[in-house]
Amino acid sequence: MVNQSDSQKIVERCYLNILCRKPDEAGLKHYTKLLEGNEIDETGLIEQFKNSNEYKLSHPTDLDPKQITAQERMRTDWNARVIDDVKFAIRSVSSQSEKEFWDSGVIDCEAILGVNTTRNDLIIQGNDPKNMNILEIGCGIGRLIIPMSKIFGEVIGVDVSDEMVKLAKEKTSNITNCKIFQNSGSDISFLKDNYIDFCYSFIVFQHIPDKIIVENYIREVSRVLKPQGIFRFQVRGNTENKPTELTTWDGVSFSSKEIHNYAKENNFKILEEGDASEYFWVTFQLKE
Fold first, then answer.
1. 98-286 homologous superfamily
2. Residue ranges of the domains in the chain?
């Protein structure tokens, strides 16, 4: 029988080597007890970890990240997640019905726009929404862009995953003011300068494994936005309790200082900034 001290060390080692994080208290107790009782050995523990949803979400393919670009890794990994369980990959909620999934898009759409708040006034700026062009970075299969299409004149969505884009085009085939494009995963070069009134990105940048990609998106949005246009997006902040390995699920994090530097470098002023918790919102406005 393995003693408790040795068992804990094995569990801690497996968490760090496989899941790239420290064990949570419940997990440490559970797996230590299994090892102590000889119900599992280290090989079996490693196998359990590699078969866990946590590991599979971070490693949906066996591609070596050192052998491919970050963009290709993003495309391939997200295609795999789509095939496995597209609704969970997008929303991370187990056992959700089709109706719950699409209804959540309406709720999140209203939250992004700040309906009935001053944020909505900042986004609309006295315009008729039907005359506004908007862009979603990381549109997935259209969960948000479909309700957005009922508000705005032209809605454009981009996504790195061709599987996502395929499904999004099917879902929006009868929506004449909605356009979906696959992009490289780091640019929106097909859009002309000063064309977009409002751009947003929700639960997307936190999955990106390279800061340069996020930086390039911010630069590109500065180019395509009209003067005084709004860019509202979400990034990862504090990752103290998250895996240390950068994947296409657990991506890069940013400090408040970095966000302020990106705003300054790309002619934005910051209208709103979250508290730098794990997921926090930022609202930029392009200067004249």
1. Vaccinia Virus protein VP39 (3.40.50.150)
2. 4-51, 98-286
Beta bridge mates, 234: 281
* Three-state secondary structure call for residue 254: coil
pLDDT the model gives residue 234? 94
φ, ψ dihedrals at 85, nearest 5°: -170, 90
Q: Quote the CA–CA distance of 189 and 181 in Å, as a whole number.
A: 11
- Indicate if the pLDDT at residue 1 is higher than 60: no
Q: What is the C-alpha to C-alpha distance for residues 107 and 117, in angstroms, rounded to an integer? A: 15
Please give the C-alpha separations between residue 223 and each of 53, 133, 177, 246, 282, in angstroms, as whole numbers. 39, 14, 22, 28, 18
Neighbours of 212 (CB within 10 A): 11
Supply the pTM of this predicted model.
Answer: 0.92
pLDDT value for 61:
93
Tokens 């391939």 -> residue: 76
